[in-house]
Amino acid sequence: MFQRSYIVVFLLLSPFFPFAFGIFLNLTLPGQHPDPEAVALEVTRKVNVSLSLLQTRRKLLSYYTNIDQSSCQTGNPIDDCWRCDHNWQLNRQRLADCAIGFGQYALGGKGGRYYVVTSSSDPDPVNPPPGTLRYGVIQEEPLWIVFAANMEIKLSEELIFNSYKTLDGRGVNVHITGGGCITLQYISNVIIHNIHVHHCYQSGETNVRSSTTHFGYRGKSDGDGISIFGSRDIWIDHCSLSDCKDGLIDVVMGSTGITISNNHFSHHNEVMLLGHSDEYLPDSGMQVTISFNHFGKKLIQRMPRCRRGYIHVVNNDFTRWEMYAIGGSGNPTINSQGNRYIAPFDPFAKEVTKRVDTEEGKWRNWNWRSEGDVMANGAYFVASGEEVEVKYEKAYSVEAKSANFIDQLTLNAGVLIHRGSNSGKWTATTNNDTESTGEGGGQDLVAISGDANDDYGGDEESGSSTIYSSYSLLFTSLIALTTFWFIHANRAFMFL
After folding, report:
1. Helix H segments across 275-405?
2. How far apart are CA 315 and CA 45, in angstroms?
3. Exposed, middle or buried: residue 359 (CB in 10 Å: 0-12, 13-18, 19+)?
4. Within its chain, how far is the Cα of 73 from the centroid?
5. Percentage of the chain modeled with pLDDT above 70
6. Has 302 been annotated as catalytic?
């Protein structure tokens, strides 16, 4: 009798088998690129083109003194894309065409209206008044969000975005602090540019609005600076992040199509988490570009810490971590190219890499490679896995010459402050409270040093993009409930 019950269960569930295999065997995420190596190649090609243009101009300047000295070229392909326009304020949305890497298709609010934040207050997370930042980010339509003046926005609760939004802090000095802070959950096409994010703490256990048509109860948040949760096509550029409760940036739960570029990180323990858990299979499709960032003072670990996915770490400056720089578990692919790793003075913390809670017998086949990186102060990178087949000419790969330009490429990492509406002059603000001048192609640039639990427990709403794991969760729940019912009701099937 009991065996017949299992036959009944099998017959009832058999129509779902093709669907189940499609879900569990094909883990391709919406927005996942089919050839991540090609994306990495394109990033390195753009870097080398920008550096070649910069070098050519410098050679010309050495021969001809009558050439205009105020060139906007920096060698950084993202900055060279938009900072060459001295009338950038009249064409802000050009920024959306400047991303590189896996987040290059992030539209943000391109094509949408401009929304001006006029109030730094955050009085009501459910019914935010017009003029506040929260009111802008929950709207259904694409919006390019700018700020009327310098301001510090102390959030009362996590700031939950809707899709197709750009935060553009150029021309002003904007700080986001407080509860939350920024949550990108099950949405797409967001650009966050030129914003300070710091001193974010845990909040929640209350209602928070995520769109004009929905608000819901939120469990206690982690206190991340920026939490990217089940989202795609996201670009975080020229932000300064420090001192948050949990991570500065977390990318989890099937997020992909992410670029994190030109940011300055400082004063934090667990800097960046990529991947929800070793067992969460959808994160195998996670693809993240980390480029031109400065990992600065008093950082301890996770720059980033990776679980599954493909992570391209290119042309970043790592300055004296305390434990390790790049860590991982769950067999992520890590492609490190043209970075500078400056090890701490601690003789036991010289290794750039760390395989977290994994024996060598398991990680020796993981694909972790280093190409053209500069190792300083005794730093060393432990590579693993088989050599990747070279699919492009060596002339276009990132070689050590690019790493030798790290000072130039990361000179302006962090928030930029404009020094005149038409002068094309900017100040790069970081967090060291010291001042040093570097070459900026005539831009008069000054650098002013100024294991997470990602399940929030609240309702997972916000936005209009696909909830990647909903089908698999539904199917798993269906199997569990049906099996439980049949086992406990087995005696009722004696008639079989």
Report:
1. 360-363, 400-403
2. 12
3. exposed
4. 25
5. 73
6. yes
State whether 11 and 103 are in the same domain.
Answer: no
**Count of domains forming the chain:** 2
Question: 409 and 479 share a domain?
Answer: no
**Do residue 163 and residue 23 come from a single domain?**
no
DSSP one-letter string for 196-232: EEEEEE---SEEEEEETTEEEEE------SEEEES-E
Say which range, 97-106, 198-207, 358-367, 470-479, has the weakest mean pLDDT: 470-479
- Backbone dihedral angles phi then psi of residue 343, each to the nearest 5 degrees: -70, 155
In a domain, 461, yes or no: no
Tokens coding 13: 């569930």
Residue 65, in any domain of the structure? yes
* Cβ-contact 462, 231 below 8 angstroms: no
Tell me: pLDDT of 387 over 70: no
Q: What is the DSSP string of 124-172?
A: -SSSPPTTSHHHHHT-SS-EEEEESS-EEEEESS-EEPPSSEEEE-TTS
Task: Read off the CATH number of the domain in which 278 is found.
Answer: 2.160.20.10
- 25 with 152, same domain? no
What are 363's two structure tokens? Answer: 């990680």
Q: Answer whether residue 305 is part of any domain.
A: yes
Instruction: Tokens for 62, please give them.
Output: 């050495």
**Domain assignment of residue 339, yes or no:** no
Instruction: Decide: helix, strand or coil at residue 250.
Output: strand
Report pTM.
Answer: 0.81
Cβ 265 vs Cβ 292: under 8 Å? no
| Residue 192 and residue 289 in one domain | yes
Cα 196 from Cα 109, distance rounded (Å): 20
Tokens found for residue 103: 């987040």
The boundaries of the domain holding residue 472 are 2-29+468-493
Q: Summarize pLDDT for 263-307 with one digit per residue, the tens.
A: 999 999 999 999 999 999 999 999 999 999 999 999 999 999 999
Write down the catalytic residue from 302, 307, 340, 355.
Answer: 302
Residue 384, pLDDT above cutoff 70: yes
Tell the residue number behind the tokens 């006029």, with chain if given: 118
Q: Could you tell me if 275 and 304 lie in one domain?
A: yes
Instruction: Answer yes or no: do 290 and 187 share one domain.
Output: yes
Q: Looking at 26-66, list the stretches that DSSP marks H as alpha helix, in order from N- to C-terminal side.
A: 36-63
Q: What is the pLDDT of residues 168-184, one digit of tens each?
A: 999 999 999 999 899 99
Per residue in 218-246, pLDDT (tens digit) is: 999 999 999 999 999 999 999 999 999 99
Q: What are the tokens at 229?
A: 């949760």
